[in-house]
């Protein structure tokens, strides 16, 4: 694997995406403890701010995580994370946005900014996996140009049982014009 990349601050029209820190635990705990929001997550809702803080402090050098903030307000409202999965330019992306911001286009704006960064760094492919029943996540990926590449059966053992995953991929040529 290549050396870990720096989590640089990114800006869009409405957003500032900055490196997520353990100090974001308080702001993001409401989302990470929300049973509906966490239903399709790989782990159960968080039980305490201390659990969230510990997860954010855990070193994962292959992953970068950005806190999604609104310009002019440094409070984290969500997260986008990316990790280089294989040498040769293949990265995985994941995201979470607080319920009060659903339907606002913020998730698409934030994920697009991170994808722009990933491709600018020379990555050739970005992929995401999501539960096939997570319609909102699938719609977001498809709106951004990701293509469904397959369903992996019984791929994950999660807090809601053994789950399939819908695997989506994006190449630079697949990008939706803005």
Describe this structure in words.
- By secondary structure, this protein is α+β, with helices and mostly antiparallel strands.
- The longest helix has 15 residues.
- It has 4 helices and 8 strands.
- An 8-stranded mixed sheet has the order 1-2-3-4-5-6-8-7, with helices on both faces.
- The number of distinct β-strands equals 8
- Side by side, the strands of the main sheet go 1-2-3-4-5-6-8-7
What's the shape? globular
Structural class given helices, strands, pairing? alpha+beta
List keywords for this structure.
alpha+beta, eight-stranded mixed beta sheet, globular
Question: What is the topological layout?
Answer:
Layout: E1 10-11, E2 15-19, H1 25-32, H2 49-57, E3 63-70, E4 73-86, E5 90-97, H3 106-120, E6 125-130, H4 135-143, E7 147-158, E8 161-170
Parallel strand pairs: 5-6
Antiparallel strand pairs: 1-2, 2-3, 3-4, 4-5, 6-8, 7-8
Helix pairs in contact: 1-2
């Amino acid at each position: 694997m290549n050396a870990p990349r720096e989590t640089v601050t990114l800006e869009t029209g409405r957003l500032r995406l900055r490196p997520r820190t353990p100090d974001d635990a308080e702001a993001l705990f409401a989302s990470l403890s929300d049973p509906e929001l966490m239903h399709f997550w790989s782990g159960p809702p968080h039980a305490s701010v201390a659990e969230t803080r510990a997860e954010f402090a855990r070193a994962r050098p292959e992953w970068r995580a950005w806190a999604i903030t609104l310009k002019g307000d440094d409070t984290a409202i969500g997260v986008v994370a990316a990790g280089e999965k294989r040498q040769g330019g293949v990265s995985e992306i994941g995201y979470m946005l607080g319920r009060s911001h659903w339907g606002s286009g913020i998730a698409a704006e934030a994920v697009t900014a991170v994808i722009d960064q990933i491709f600018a760094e020379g990555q050739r492919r970005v992929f995401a996996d999501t539960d096939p029943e997570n319609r909102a996540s699938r719609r977001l990926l498809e709106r951004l140009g990701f293509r469904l590449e397959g369903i992996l059966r019984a791929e994950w053992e999660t807090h809601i049982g053994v789950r399939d995953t819908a695997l989506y991929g994006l190449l630079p040529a697949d990008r939706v014009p803005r």
